[in-house]
Amino acid sequence: MNHPNPPPQNPNQEEPSPPKFEWDFHVSAVVSSPATGQHISDTLGVIEVNSSGTLFATGGIARKIRIYNLNSLPPITTHATACRTYICTPAKLSSLKWKPGSAGKTMGSADYDGVVTEYDLETQMPVFERDEHSGRRVWSMDYSNHLGSVVGASGSDDGTMQMWDPRHENGKCVAAVQFGGPVCCVEFSSFNGTLLAVGCADTRAYVYDVRKMVEPVAVFDGHKKTVSYTRFLDDRTVMTSGTDGCLKMWDTEDQSLIRTYKGHTNQRRFVGLSVWRNQGLIGCGSESNQVFVYDKRWGEPIWVHEFEPEGGTRSEHRFVSSICWSQVGDDECTLVGGGSDGVVKIFSGKRKQLTSDV
Prior knowledge:
single chain; mainly beta; Methylamine Dehydrogenase, Chain H; five-stranded mixed β-sheet; four-stranded antiparallel β-sheet; 1 helix; disordered N terminus; repeat; flowering; Putative transducin/WD40 repeat-like superfamily protein; cytoplasm
Protein backbone atom coordinates (compact mmCIF):
# COMPACT_ATOMS: atom_id res chain seq x y z
CA MET A 1 0.00 0.00 0.00
CA ASN A 2 1.37 3.39 -0.96
CA HIS A 3 1.14 6.06 1.72
CA PRO A 4 0.82 9.75 0.85
CA ASN A 5 3.15 12.35 2.23
CA PRO A 6 2.01 14.04 5.44
CA PRO A 7 -0.91 16.33 4.53
CA PRO A 8 -0.47 20.08 4.87
CA GLN A 9 -1.79 21.47 8.10
CA ASN A 10 -5.20 23.08 7.78
CA PRO A 11 -5.16 26.89 8.00
CA ASN A 12 -7.67 26.51 10.85
CA GLN A 13 -4.65 25.46 12.91
CA GLU A 14 -4.23 29.12 13.81
CA GLU A 15 -5.97 29.44 17.13
CA PRO A 16 -8.68 32.11 17.07
CA SER A 17 -7.99 33.29 20.62
CA PRO A 18 -6.24 32.15 23.81
CA PRO A 19 -7.84 29.13 25.52
CA LYS A 20 -10.80 30.09 27.68
CA PHE A 21 -11.65 28.30 30.90
CA GLU A 22 -15.40 28.01 30.33
CA TRP A 23 -15.95 25.01 32.61
CA ASP A 24 -15.76 24.33 36.33
CA PHE A 25 -14.56 20.83 37.16
CA HIS A 26 -14.38 19.12 40.52
CA VAL A 27 -13.82 15.60 41.88
CA SER A 28 -17.21 14.14 42.83
CA ALA A 29 -16.08 10.63 43.84
CA VAL A 30 -12.93 8.61 44.42
CA VAL A 31 -12.80 4.82 44.34
CA SER A 32 -9.60 3.57 45.94
CA SER A 33 -7.93 0.24 45.32
CA PRO A 34 -6.32 -2.23 47.72
CA ALA A 35 -3.42 -2.21 45.28
CA THR A 36 -2.73 1.50 45.84
CA GLY A 37 1.00 1.79 46.37
CA GLN A 38 1.51 -1.41 44.35
CA HIS A 39 0.94 0.38 41.09
CA ILE A 40 1.28 -2.53 38.70
CA SER A 41 -1.16 -5.05 40.21
CA ASP A 42 -4.41 -3.19 39.44
CA THR A 43 -3.58 -0.90 36.51
CA LEU A 44 -6.82 0.12 34.81
CA GLY A 45 -6.38 -0.25 31.07
CA VAL A 46 -9.90 0.69 30.02
CA ILE A 47 -13.01 2.49 31.28
CA GLU A 48 -16.31 2.46 29.38
CA VAL A 49 -19.45 4.44 30.27
CA ASN A 50 -22.74 3.06 28.91
CA SER A 51 -24.86 5.01 26.44
CA SER A 52 -27.35 6.21 29.07
CA GLY A 53 -24.59 7.51 31.38
CA THR A 54 -25.76 5.42 34.32
CA LEU A 55 -23.06 2.74 34.54
CA PHE A 56 -19.37 2.41 33.85
CA ALA A 57 -17.11 -0.62 33.56
CA THR A 58 -13.39 -0.99 34.21
CA GLY A 59 -10.87 -3.61 33.18
CA GLY A 60 -7.12 -4.12 33.33
CA ILE A 61 -4.29 -6.02 34.92
CA ALA A 62 -6.41 -7.42 37.79
CA ARG A 63 -8.34 -9.71 35.37
CA LYS A 64 -11.72 -8.38 36.45
CA ILE A 65 -14.55 -6.58 34.73
CA ARG A 66 -16.05 -4.31 37.39
CA ILE A 67 -19.39 -2.55 36.93
CA TYR A 68 -20.36 0.58 38.90
CA ASN A 69 -23.36 2.88 39.19
CA LEU A 70 -22.03 6.18 37.88
CA ASN A 71 -24.43 8.57 39.54
CA SER A 72 -24.70 7.13 43.06
CA LEU A 73 -21.12 6.66 44.24
CA PRO A 74 -20.28 8.10 47.67
CA PRO A 75 -17.53 10.74 47.68
CA ILE A 76 -14.92 8.29 48.99
CA THR A 77 -15.25 4.54 48.63
CA THR A 78 -13.40 1.38 47.62
CA HIS A 79 -13.81 -1.13 44.81
CA ALA A 80 -15.07 -3.70 47.29
CA THR A 81 -17.98 -1.55 48.46
CA ALA A 82 -18.72 0.45 45.31
CA CYS A 83 -18.63 -2.31 42.71
CA ARG A 84 -22.13 -3.33 41.62
CA THR A 85 -20.94 -6.61 40.12
CA TYR A 86 -17.71 -8.08 38.80
CA ILE A 87 -16.60 -10.88 36.52
CA CYS A 88 -13.25 -12.66 36.85
CA THR A 89 -11.59 -13.14 33.46
CA PRO A 90 -8.88 -15.61 32.41
CA ALA A 91 -6.49 -12.93 31.13
CA LYS A 92 -5.54 -9.29 31.58
CA LEU A 93 -7.96 -6.96 29.80
CA SER A 94 -7.08 -4.29 27.26
CA SER A 95 -10.50 -3.27 25.91
CA LEU A 96 -14.18 -3.25 26.91
CA LYS A 97 -17.33 -2.29 24.97
CA TRP A 98 -21.02 -2.34 25.84
CA LYS A 99 -22.67 -4.41 23.10
CA PRO A 100 -25.32 -2.36 21.26
CA GLY A 101 -28.82 -3.77 21.21
CA SER A 102 -28.26 -5.84 24.37
CA ALA A 103 -29.99 -3.38 26.73
CA GLY A 104 -26.76 -3.12 28.70
CA LYS A 105 -26.72 -6.84 29.48
CA THR A 106 -23.73 -7.88 27.34
CA MET A 107 -20.14 -6.67 27.58
CA GLY A 108 -17.47 -7.33 24.97
CA SER A 109 -13.84 -7.59 26.02
CA ALA A 110 -10.42 -8.08 24.46
CA ASP A 111 -7.47 -9.51 26.34
CA TYR A 112 -3.74 -10.13 26.46
CA ASP A 113 -4.19 -13.75 25.33
CA GLY A 114 -5.60 -12.63 21.99
CA VAL A 115 -9.22 -13.53 22.74
CA VAL A 116 -12.37 -11.47 22.22
CA THR A 117 -15.11 -12.52 24.65
CA GLU A 118 -18.69 -11.45 25.27
CA TYR A 119 -20.06 -11.78 28.79
CA ASP A 120 -23.67 -11.92 29.96
CA LEU A 121 -23.60 -9.46 32.85
CA GLU A 122 -26.57 -11.09 34.57
CA THR A 123 -25.19 -14.63 34.63
CA GLN A 124 -21.57 -13.39 34.65
CA MET A 125 -20.76 -16.09 32.10
CA PRO A 126 -19.12 -15.91 28.66
CA VAL A 127 -21.59 -16.30 25.79
CA PHE A 128 -19.19 -15.82 22.85
CA GLU A 129 -15.46 -16.26 22.29
CA ARG A 130 -13.27 -15.48 19.32
CA ASP A 131 -9.62 -16.53 19.19
CA GLU A 132 -8.43 -15.62 15.70
CA HIS A 133 -5.37 -13.45 16.38
CA SER A 134 -2.88 -16.32 16.78
CA GLY A 135 -2.67 -15.82 20.53
CA ARG A 136 -1.26 -12.31 20.09
CA ARG A 137 -2.51 -9.56 22.36
CA VAL A 138 -5.70 -7.82 21.21
CA TRP A 139 -5.38 -4.15 22.09
CA SER A 140 -8.79 -2.92 21.04
CA MET A 141 -12.26 -4.02 19.99
CA ASP A 142 -15.46 -2.20 19.03
CA TYR A 143 -18.98 -2.77 17.74
CA SER A 144 -21.15 -1.23 15.05
CA ASN A 145 -24.89 -1.72 14.70
CA HIS A 146 -25.32 0.52 11.65
CA LEU A 147 -24.80 -2.23 9.09
CA GLY A 148 -28.09 -4.09 9.44
CA SER A 149 -26.76 -6.18 12.34
CA VAL A 150 -24.11 -5.90 15.02
CA VAL A 151 -20.57 -6.52 13.76
CA GLY A 152 -17.33 -6.36 15.67
CA ALA A 153 -13.77 -5.29 14.91
CA SER A 154 -10.54 -6.04 16.72
CA GLY A 155 -6.91 -4.96 16.38
CA SER A 156 -3.95 -6.98 17.56
CA ASP A 157 -0.21 -7.29 17.98
CA ASP A 158 -0.35 -9.69 15.02
CA GLY A 159 -0.67 -6.61 12.78
CA THR A 160 -4.22 -7.29 11.67
CA MET A 161 -7.53 -5.54 11.99
CA GLN A 162 -10.33 -8.09 11.68
CA MET A 163 -14.06 -7.51 11.29
CA TRP A 164 -16.28 -10.34 12.45
CA ASP A 165 -19.90 -11.36 12.96
CA PRO A 166 -20.75 -12.35 16.57
CA ARG A 167 -23.87 -14.18 15.39
CA HIS A 168 -21.61 -17.00 14.24
CA GLU A 169 -20.28 -19.38 16.86
CA ASN A 170 -16.62 -18.65 16.16
CA GLY A 171 -17.11 -15.09 14.97
CA LYS A 172 -16.86 -15.50 11.20
CA CYS A 173 -14.30 -13.05 9.75
CA VAL A 174 -15.98 -10.79 7.22
CA ALA A 175 -12.93 -8.62 6.44
CA ALA A 176 -9.29 -8.36 7.46
CA VAL A 177 -6.46 -5.91 6.79
CA GLN A 178 -2.77 -6.55 7.42
CA PHE A 179 -0.64 -3.62 8.57
CA GLY A 180 3.08 -3.11 8.99
CA GLY A 181 2.96 -3.27 12.78
CA PRO A 182 0.66 -3.87 15.75
CA VAL A 183 -2.85 -2.45 15.56
CA CYS A 184 -3.49 -0.45 18.74
CA CYS A 185 -6.99 0.91 18.25
CA VAL A 186 -10.15 0.30 16.23
CA GLU A 187 -13.30 2.43 16.40
CA PHE A 188 -16.45 2.57 14.31
CA SER A 189 -18.02 5.95 13.70
CA SER A 190 -21.19 6.38 15.75
CA PHE A 191 -22.32 8.93 13.17
CA ASN A 192 -21.76 6.74 10.13
CA GLY A 193 -21.36 3.09 11.00
CA THR A 194 -19.73 2.35 7.65
CA LEU A 195 -16.54 4.17 8.69
CA LEU A 196 -13.86 2.50 10.80
CA ALA A 197 -10.76 4.24 12.17
CA VAL A 198 -7.61 2.23 12.89
CA GLY A 199 -4.52 3.38 14.82
CA CYS A 200 -1.23 1.58 14.26
CA ALA A 201 2.32 1.28 15.51
CA ASP A 202 3.48 2.31 12.03
CA THR A 203 2.78 5.93 13.18
CA ARG A 204 -0.32 6.28 10.98
CA ALA A 205 -4.07 6.20 11.42
CA TYR A 206 -6.42 4.93 8.72
CA VAL A 207 -10.11 5.32 7.98
CA TYR A 208 -11.90 2.61 6.01
CA ASP A 209 -15.33 2.32 4.45
CA VAL A 210 -16.21 -1.17 5.66
CA ARG A 211 -18.34 -1.81 2.56
CA LYS A 212 -15.18 -1.88 0.43
CA MET A 213 -12.15 -2.77 2.49
CA VAL A 214 -9.66 -2.56 -0.37
CA GLU A 215 -7.96 0.76 0.29
CA PRO A 216 -8.45 3.29 3.11
CA VAL A 217 -10.54 6.34 2.33
CA ALA A 218 -8.14 8.41 4.46
CA VAL A 219 -4.61 8.03 5.80
CA PHE A 220 -3.42 10.34 8.58
CA ASP A 221 0.36 10.56 8.54
CA GLY A 222 1.65 13.07 11.06
CA HIS A 223 2.55 11.36 14.33
CA LYS A 224 6.20 10.54 14.93
CA LYS A 225 5.51 7.42 17.00
CA THR A 226 2.78 4.82 17.56
CA VAL A 227 -0.84 5.93 17.15
CA SER A 228 -2.42 4.45 20.27
CA TYR A 229 -6.00 5.80 20.02
CA THR A 230 -8.47 6.96 17.38
CA ARG A 231 -11.78 8.65 18.23
CA PHE A 232 -14.50 10.08 15.98
CA LEU A 233 -15.40 13.58 17.15
CA ASP A 234 -18.17 14.08 14.57
CA ASP A 235 -19.19 12.72 11.18
CA ARG A 236 -16.01 13.90 9.43
CA THR A 237 -13.47 14.61 12.19
CA VAL A 238 -11.14 12.10 13.88
CA MET A 239 -8.94 12.58 16.94
CA THR A 240 -5.73 10.58 17.24
CA SER A 241 -3.33 10.13 20.13
CA GLY A 242 0.29 9.12 19.76
CA THR A 243 3.17 8.18 21.98
CA ASP A 244 4.91 11.22 20.56
CA GLY A 245 3.12 13.17 23.29
CA CYS A 246 0.46 14.90 21.24
CA LEU A 247 -3.12 14.63 20.06
CA LYS A 248 -4.17 15.53 16.53
CA MET A 249 -7.51 16.39 14.95
CA TRP A 250 -8.03 15.45 11.30
CA ASP A 251 -10.54 16.08 8.55
CA THR A 252 -11.46 12.76 6.91
CA GLU A 253 -12.69 14.30 3.68
CA ASP A 254 -9.54 16.14 2.62
CA GLN A 255 -7.16 14.25 4.98
CA SER A 256 -5.86 17.53 6.40
CA LEU A 257 -4.53 18.14 9.88
CA ILE A 258 -6.78 20.64 11.66
CA ARG A 259 -5.02 21.07 14.98
CA THR A 260 -2.34 19.59 17.25
CA TYR A 261 -2.78 19.42 21.04
CA LYS A 262 0.15 19.39 23.47
CA GLY A 263 0.65 19.57 27.22
CA HIS A 264 0.31 16.02 28.53
CA THR A 265 3.18 13.52 28.71
CA ASN A 266 2.97 10.34 26.65
CA GLN A 267 6.10 8.57 25.43
CA ARG A 268 5.54 4.85 25.88
CA ARG A 269 2.25 3.96 27.65
CA PHE A 270 -1.45 3.81 26.91
CA VAL A 271 -2.93 6.79 28.76
CA GLY A 272 -6.48 6.86 27.39
CA LEU A 273 -8.34 9.18 25.02
CA SER A 274 -12.01 10.13 25.05
CA VAL A 275 -14.09 12.85 23.43
CA TRP A 276 -17.29 14.44 24.70
CA ARG A 277 -18.98 15.00 21.38
CA ASN A 278 -21.77 17.28 22.64
CA GLN A 279 -19.40 20.13 23.45
CA GLY A 280 -16.13 19.16 21.77
CA LEU A 281 -14.12 18.44 24.90
CA ILE A 282 -11.22 15.98 24.80
CA GLY A 283 -9.91 14.04 27.79
CA CYS A 284 -6.65 12.12 28.09
CA GLY A 285 -4.34 10.80 30.75
CA SER A 286 -0.65 11.45 31.14
CA GLU A 287 2.52 9.75 32.28
CA SER A 288 2.84 12.68 34.69
CA ASN A 289 -0.13 11.13 36.56
CA GLN A 290 -2.47 13.96 35.58
CA VAL A 291 -5.79 14.22 33.76
CA PHE A 292 -5.87 16.71 30.89
CA VAL A 293 -8.94 18.28 29.30
CA TYR A 294 -8.67 20.08 25.96
CA ASP A 295 -11.28 22.08 24.07
CA LYS A 296 -11.19 21.14 20.38
CA ARG A 297 -10.77 24.85 19.51
CA TRP A 298 -7.40 25.28 21.24
CA GLY A 299 -4.17 23.32 21.24
CA GLU A 300 -3.42 23.97 24.92
CA PRO A 301 -5.26 22.24 27.81
CA ILE A 302 -8.10 24.08 29.53
CA TRP A 303 -7.90 22.00 32.74
CA VAL A 304 -5.32 19.75 34.41
CA HIS A 305 -5.82 17.65 37.54
CA GLU A 306 -3.18 15.90 39.65
CA PHE A 307 -4.18 12.28 40.20
CA GLU A 308 -1.99 11.84 43.26
CA PRO A 309 -3.84 11.63 46.60
CA GLU A 310 -4.21 14.93 48.41
CA GLY A 311 -1.01 15.70 50.25
CA GLY A 312 0.84 12.96 48.37
CA THR A 313 3.93 13.33 46.26
CA ARG A 314 4.12 12.64 42.56
CA SER A 315 5.52 9.20 41.73
CA GLU A 316 7.39 8.55 38.51
CA HIS A 317 5.82 5.08 38.44
CA ARG A 318 2.17 6.12 38.51
CA PHE A 319 0.28 7.44 35.52
CA VAL A 320 -3.31 8.02 34.40
CA SER A 321 -4.01 4.98 32.25
CA SER A 322 -7.65 5.27 31.14
CA ILE A 323 -10.30 7.91 30.59
CA CYS A 324 -13.91 8.05 29.41
CA TRP A 325 -16.58 10.75 29.08
CA SER A 326 -20.24 10.12 29.60
CA GLN A 327 -21.92 11.27 26.37
CA VAL A 328 -24.98 12.47 28.33
CA GLY A 329 -25.46 16.16 29.05
CA ASP A 330 -25.01 19.55 27.44
CA ASP A 331 -24.02 22.18 30.01
CA GLU A 332 -22.98 19.56 32.57
CA CYS A 333 -20.63 16.64 32.00
CA THR A 334 -19.03 13.63 33.67
CA LEU A 335 -15.52 12.30 33.09
CA VAL A 336 -14.21 9.05 34.59
CA GLY A 337 -10.47 8.52 34.96
CA GLY A 338 -8.47 5.51 36.09
CA GLY A 339 -4.90 5.20 37.29
CA SER A 340 -2.08 2.70 37.09
CA ASP A 341 -2.60 2.07 40.83
CA GLY A 342 -6.27 1.12 40.35
CA VAL A 343 -7.75 4.38 41.65
CA VAL A 344 -10.87 5.69 39.88
CA LYS A 345 -11.89 9.34 40.01
CA ILE A 346 -15.20 10.79 38.85
CA PHE A 347 -15.03 14.40 37.65
CA SER A 348 -18.12 16.55 37.29
CA GLY A 349 -18.04 19.58 35.03
CA LYS A 350 -20.43 22.48 34.64
CA ARG A 351 -20.37 25.31 32.14
CA LYS A 352 -19.74 28.67 33.80
CA GLN A 353 -22.55 31.18 33.82
CA LEU A 354 -21.34 34.05 31.71
CA THR A 355 -22.34 37.48 32.96
CA SER A 356 -22.22 40.79 31.16
CA ASP A 357 -22.25 44.36 32.33
CA VAL A 358 -25.65 46.02 32.18
